[in-house]
Amino acid sequence: MTDSVxxxxxxxxxxxxxxxKTRIGGSLIRPEAADAMRRAAEGFARISDLQxxxxxxxxxxxxxxxxxxxxxxxxxMTLAAAACIAGDDLSAMASLPDTEGLxxxxxxxxxxxxxxxxxxxxxxxxxxDVGANDAYLGTGSENTELWEIDAAIGEDTAAVAYVQKAYxxxxxxxxxxxxxxxxxxxxxxxxxELPPVENLERFVDLGVDLxxxxxxxxxxxxxxxxxxxxxxxxxxxxxxxHLDMHAAEDAYVPPEGVIDTEELPGVxxxxxxxxxxxxxxxxxxxxxxxxxxxEEDHEARTAExxxxxxxxxxxxxxxxxxxxxxxxxxxxxxxxxVPVTVDExxxxxxxxxxxxxxxxxxxxIFVGADELDEGRFTINxxxxxxxxxxxxxxxxxxxx
Length: 400
Ligand SMILES: *Cc1c(COP(=O)(O)O)cnc(C)c1O
Prior knowledge:
Aspartate Aminotransferase, domain 1, 2 domains, 12 strands, globular, binds pyridoxal-5'-phosphate, PyrdxlP-dep_Trfase_major, PyrdxlP-dep_Trfase
């Protein structure tokens, strides 16, 4: 916990007890991937050739026709929307985010609306949300009926968007069926749905047209990478709207697997995704990290997380003011987490004060703060190495 580069820069270091949260840097990049990035920095390769190589690997691990890497799952979602709106039309690509005259609506079940869907609007999409939030009433009614999705699809529809979580409804296979009956593609935001590793293939198997995963969460690649997997024509469109484009026509020979120049009337302009570029280092790091992620012993890793979670839950439960449990991995997180309930009559501080106080330690400690209003914080073992556990436990005890 000393002589880190953060300390050298006089930036407070953070101990991550909350999982793969972007605002504190996502996950720990795999050392092999970091090493590959350093080596990538020693020379050059054409970005489109690296994308072609990444596509091969993504095809291999997802079963999709093609794959692509952009600067995060969010960037992949923007490219997915851009691909569904513009297709293979270069002038449409050049006009985005202006969508005048283009089918630009993305239909989304209302309860799937999240802050991340801004990524679709960046490409010019208009979100059309359907359904209600009736499950909230507890009457047994559904949030979104399939007929509502069907009814919302029309001439102006570019895609249907879906957020994958263990608890999302309606079921994805049924949504895919409705969309495909209407000849409309389905985009899935599965940014944080790894592990289980089986999810890499699951969405493609279900017939989803494009699916986005974060490269910087459990895959442990560079934070500024995301994977888009799916239909070849849509991935080509995404590539055309992302790669650095301007070149003399005679010198424009991108790899065929990524861009088919035969099909193009000329050299495209820089597209909507140009600001979401990935460098050669990120591409190489992503490829290495994804290879290692699929090879990993997932059962052993989950067992390690569980053992760490149980140790934390057990030790904190000894504090009179705290009660703990260990959640099943399925609930919301991909790793088992430890919800810690603070008895505010017993503790000298409120839950919020405790959580804020931990953030002021040196190094800072970030625990999960999504349930403060219920007097609860959470500890997630994913990004918390065993050797940092004692420090976290000790600082929590010291504040009680
Ligand atoms: C993390 C996340 C994203 C964004 O992923 P990045 O790789 O950080 O761009 C999008 N959607 C959901 C549901 C996420 O959890």
